[in-house]
Amino acid sequence: MLDEELVKTGSKVLFAGAGQGDDAIRAAELGAESTLIDLSPTMMDTNLKLIEKHPDKESLNIKPILGDILKHEAKANYDVVVANFFLTVFEKDKMNAVLDHLIKLCKPGGYVIIGDFKTASGNIFQKTAQQAYWLTAATAFFAVAGNAIHGLYNYADLLEKKGLKLCKEQTFSVLGQPAFQSILAEKQ
Asked: How many whole angstroms separate alpha carbon 87 and alpha carbon 154?
């Protein structure tokens, strides 16, 4: 969803949970000021190494911040706030608090993008397969990183309830079953 239509030269884009860093680099290549925030030194190091390998690294405007997203206080400063596979690490109450904070960091008229596991949909067999896929992943995340185990979050509903306007949803499949989604919502 990070394309020339959404990310303009000079746009400020925040990445909550740095992930692998590809999206932050893509936004910077489009002329954005990318800010990466992650609590994990390992993930931040992965990002910094990826940025260092980029052939035009000197022209990329990427600011890495090793720290807690809830302590980042740049209120209504970002044109785009991205949370890919980030909110899912939290139990429900903490996830809601983090999502509220991310929305607060986004400018009015700006966009919030959430990429994560897709809410179960379809017939009973599809829903069961999606839930099983999610619970397998959640159990692995818990075993490796201590992440919360919970049901699938319905981010589209949450964003609408928090006053954002849904603009676009993309679904990505695994073995023919919807498994992941990316949601673009505009802050009013």
From this structure: 11
